[in-house]
């Protein structure tokens, strides 16, 4: 059975989907963005910080740690600015490196958005 989850402490989902779907011992997190937050019109670094804060909120809600991150898929509008994102991610992971894909895209669903991050999280160690 699949459990569909919206987290009240995260920005409202701007489309016909949920923040995450739980199946067996895995949580699949929809693309998180800075949409609807003060960081929405900010820099790539500011938006990245907001998105990672949202991801951390999900981890805390699920009583999981960063070591439980299995995979991230990161979509950025300008890959030439990836250094700031990579440095931020290195600090965020605290040595627990997940599998990761970094993809440059021409647009996200709102013109202000510069980054979107999807995650897969193990719910049991």
Automatic annotation (TrEMBL):
Pfam families in alphabetical order? Ribonuc_L-PSP
User: Entry's InterPro entries?
Assistant: RutC-like_sf, YjgF/YER057c/UK114
CDD domains attached to this UniProt entry = YjgF_YER057c_UK114_family
Gene Ontology CC entries for this record? cytosol
- Residues folding into a coiled coil are none
Q: Name one GO molecular function term.
A: deaminase activity
Question: In which family does this protein belong, per the annotation?
Answer: Belongs to the RutC family.
Record-given protein name: Endoribonuclease L-PSP
Please name the source species.
Answer: Vibrio renipiscarius
